[in-house]
Amino acid sequence: MLTLCGPVPGTFDATGAVVAQAFAAPLAVALRAAHRIAALERGLASRDLIGQAKGALMARHGVDATAAFEHLVRISQETNTRLAEVAARLVDEVVSAPTTALDGRRR
Fold this sequence. Notes:
Strand content: under 5%
CATH superfamily of the domain at 32-93: Winged helix-like DNA-binding domain superfamily/Winged helix DNA-binding domain
CATH architecture of the domain at 32-93: Orthogonal Bundle
Number of helices: 3
Helix content: over 70%
Oligomer: single chain
CATH class of the domain at 32-93: Mainly Alpha
Order of helices and strands: HHH
Number of strands: 0
C-alpha cells in the first residue's frame, strides 16, 4: 500500500501517482533489506557481548563454554531480561572491576 501526502489536497496528480508507484516496489525492497541488515548487525553485536560474558564466566569460575552459556541463559530467564542485556551487564561489571597486575598489585 502506498500513501502519498502533500501540503495541500490535490498536490499529486495522476502522473505523480504513476511515478510514485514506479518507486514504491524498489523502495519497499530497499527498506526491507535495510531492516534485515540492522537486525543482523544487532545480532552480531549481541553475539560478541555474549562471547565476552562467557569468557569472563569461564575465567572467573573455571567452567567450560557450555556451562557459562547455560548460566547466562538461566539468569536471563530468572530475571526476564534479554540474554544480550545480561551479557552486557556482566561485561560492564568485569570492565569496571579493579584488575590485578601480573606482580599481584591492584590497578
